[in-house]
Amino acid sequence: MAFPVPEVPAGDGVPGRILIVFSGATDLRWLKALKPSFRHCYAVLESAGGWLLVDPASHQTRIEYLGPMPLYRLLEGLQTAETTVVCCRRRAAPMRLAPIRPFTCVEAVKRLIGIHAPWTLTPWQLFDHLIDLNKI
Predict the structure, then answer these.
(1) pTM of the model
(2) Structural contact between residues 120 and 133, judged by C-beta atoms closer than 8 angstroms
(3) Which of 96, 95, 84, 91 is nearest to 110 (CA)?
(4) Rounded distance between C-alpha atoms, residue 125 and residue 109, angstroms
């Protein structure tokens, strides 16, 4: 399931669109306690040269250049029966220390988006927060 993509006018100073992908797939036993379909999240960032995948897993952060492609083709590849994709804008984070939290996929993705949201701790809470931010 994908949600509407905000328009980003060229040259308005906005860093670009970011797709947040939520997934229920996990190999870690303790993550099975989280809401099904919302056990992990990662980001795909838009840049001038194409799309960049940033997947902050528990053991290692994977960064992969996906190259230039139309948004619809990228969404086709990201959307599966086990994923939910939310499209939003990256934003300038407040100029203050982000809340100190354990390094999780949610914390990594919040910092990529540019939000602090101190009590957003799980992928489901991040999804809910983004839906509220985007007013979808």
Answers:
(1) 0.82
(2) no
(3) 91
(4) 12
pLDDT in tens, 86-134: 998 888 888 888 888 888 999 999 999 999 888 999 999 999 999 887 6
Distance CA 14, CA 7 (A): 11
Cβ 89 vs Cβ 17: under 8 Å = yes
Answer whether 57's CB lies under 8 Å from 123's CB: no
Q: Where are the domains of the chain?
A: 17-134
Sign (positive or negative) of CA dihedral 120, 105, 98, 113:
negative
Token pair listed for 122: 């799980």
Q: Which of 6, 18, 31 is nearest to 114 (CA)?
A: 18
Q: Which residue has the higher pLDDT, 49 or 136?
A: 49
Confidence check: pLDDT of 16 > 70: yes
Spatial distance between the Cα atoms of 61 and 128, rounded to a whole number of angstroms: 24
> By mean pLDDT, which of 20-24, 28-32, 46-50, 120-124 is the weakest?
28-32
Going by C-alpha positions, the residue among 71, 72, 66 that lies closest to residue 51 is 66
